[in-house]
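S1.2 Input.
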Amino acid sequence: MVLLTMARPDPPGHRRQDLENDVHFFDAVDVPETDHWEAWLAYADLLTGAGDPRGEAIRLEHRCETGDGDPARLASAYAEVERQWGLDGLREDGSWRLTWSRGFIDEACFRLAKDTQPQRRELVERLLADHPHTATADLTDPEQWEGALIDALLSHPATHRLRTLELHLTDYHHSAEHSAISLAGRRRPRLEHMYFGYDFEYLYENSEGSTGNRIDPLEYHHKGLVQADVWDSLPALRTLELEGAFLFHFVRHDSLTRLWVRGPVISDGSIFDFGWTSGLVSLEVEIGSDVFGCLCPLGQLDELEASKYPNLEDLDLGKAGFDATSYEVISALADSSVLPSLRSLTIGDLTIRREDCEGDPLAALAELAPRFAHLDLNVDDVVDIEGADDEEVTRVLSRFGLGQAHATGDQSDD
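S1.3 Output.
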């Protein structure tokens, strides 16, 4: 595997091959389904015989892997591959970081580069003219150029064996849908890990697009940023990371085993009801204060139903803020139908005040404790039981099965 960080300009007199014919050739030769090098070296010979520079790159990669190669020559070989296949402009733009393996892109990470914005229209025009593409972009709108850059790569058969993909979006009001159309347009039989979304500080705050215009995520409540159904094209997907508000109408992937979300990524505002994710083993949800100062309603925890999560073992709510006391949160979790199947549970803090439980906080904790006896309870922040010292708290936790409770923050007493 090789990560390229820069591309060289075309040599004088260089003429790019007919990219449309080249692209068809990617799919015309059967790609080995095994990892054994013997098959890949035979594949490399076929490529070289057809004038495809990937053949030489594959042979150099094999030599590097067996300890008899030159990494610099390998990087140069894949730079030549990018030039011949019309992908060098994408790297020169600086928004894509690409890792090649066995003649195909193995890892790809997108984050829009600011410095190359002035010359991006020329690149986008060239890409739309020379490359296959699935999404339609308006060249007069700079906020659609991000989607065109993403589409140019994901529509290319060089991404057939893509294993890891990160799409950190800026102009997400356009590029989220463009990206989804591109993903749906080509089956990704090896894509195991995907990040999709945009960063934010406070939920629902306006974002700044590439041109300085503001994007209001609340405009996509119920409408959703993505209309295309991408899930059938990602059969090997096992880890999914989603960040932002109202990205998809649903997630339909029962083979998904790990899901990390930050924000209400489903268009109707659901936090825990993603659609069809019955294969999930690990779920991590981050939800903080929104721009109006509101936290996640406690009632959202009702969506954690065993019928939706029959295989869930690890639930991480350490960075999920609710509009309720931590006693109300842990009480709701104690009543949740998913609790019996869990092996580990992480919460933000474990704070019980007298007014929270209308009685003795230590006794309230003791009453809840047996329901969690079968799992590891992790507390990211403080454990604070009013009126009880650390020794009493430890004794209660141990006696009622919460002896596995691990607090990464401070324990305190009143």
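S1.4 Remarks. The radius of gyration is 26 Å.
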